[in-house]
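pinging the channel bc i need a second pair of eyes. not urgent but kinda urgent?? the chain im working w is below, pasted from the shared doc
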Amino acid sequence: MPDVRLASPRGKWILLTTVLGSSMAMLDSTVVNVALPRIGRDLDANLSALQWTVNAYMVTLAGLILLGGSLGDRYGRRRIFVLGVVWFAAASLLCGLAPTSGILIAARALQGVGGALLTPGSLALIQASFHPDDRSRAVGLWSGFGGIGAAVGPFLGGWLVDGPGWRWVFLLNVPLAAVCVPVALRHVPESADGGSHGRFDVLGATLGALALALLTYALIEARGGTWAVVVSGIAGLAAAVAFVQVERHRADPMLPPDIFASRQFTAVNLVTLCVYAAFGGFFFLTALQLQVVAGYSPLAAGTALLPTTALMLLFSARSGALADRTGPRLPLTAGPLICAVAMLLMLRVGPDADYLTDVLPALLVMGAGMVTLVAPLTATVLASVDTARAGLASGINNAAARAAGLVAVAALPLLSGMTPDAYRSPAAFDAAFDRAMPICSAVLVLGSALAFLLVRPTARGCRRLECRTHGNVTAPPLEPERRT
């Protein structure tokens, strides 16, 4: 039985290590959007390249995050975590030195692989190391510090872009890794699941990531209308069908189909797909809108986004308590509607937009909607399956959110009529942004309707979260396995 106490020196070192590791991935998921206009200018990249700069990372992270946790159970959680940190730092270095957009995109895909190893690994280390009496508090501290990292990400990204340059958005990960790795090797005990002897679902993970990559390519490049787009789309659908078939027939699937036998689990994941598709498109385009159209500097744009994550950090724990009293249907129905209003309020953000009257109201409403929605969504996912499968359910929900976000970043510019050079023209981008926000709002309304129609209204539909504080806007909290 793990016996490290949180108050001990070793416990503090373990917590520091896991927070540093997870913060690398958490920061990266929020800082890059702010740097996109400067990246596009310096590398002479069009809008498609900027979409891939975001999505190459998300494809590999979403496709491999479930496999990453299994690797740690089999080969040692510390070993896989350290491998993930080193991999992530090496890919970050390549991103920071990239001379072309093509190399940057390839390096971002490699970053996602590292993120898939270290993100579940950091949480697994806490679960495997701390005494049961301290485990819940350690997980709470881990999620709280990670939430702070997510919150300061846009601000830090803007400061780096305005100061030493956008390359430091990536290069910053190298010194963090240089601290994290030796501390992990010296102070974190190794652990593994001795009963984990099944075959890894490498084929399933490969097919899932391939389907996401091909469909993303088809959506991003659809404006060209080439045969490559058609072939990519068909191949992506074929890979998705093959993924489902492989998961249905494997003895140890990465994504067990029987978990979707729970109507509640299926319903909440459908809501997740809708709301995080809208969130992904919103934060991708808003960071560009504030800089390209409103004339904000990267630092001002990053700072402008702080209220949303600050509200989540301050009130996410209380929203979970609300769902305990009311049941999950009310917050899962109301939250997306509040966020839909926020996206329509963003239509006020145009040339020379005033922050206090045009930008801040929309972001405050957005934060209120996310506070209402995110914690109850995760709690309902966990409660919809057996306790022993809570970690798996959380991982699936997290991966679904990231997949929805990357599809939105790929599809929304196409649906709103953005040209490849739209971000270089304030008037063209503003017009497309005004078409994109109602689309995001409509997707949120769909998510609200699904929650109202499919989610059971009883208070028994929620479960207490261990990751009580949360500030990441790209995916719901990643909850740990329930250990005794």
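so The CA atoms of residues 57 and 124 lie 22 Å apart. and The longest helix spans residues 9-43. — does that match what u expected or am i reading it wrong
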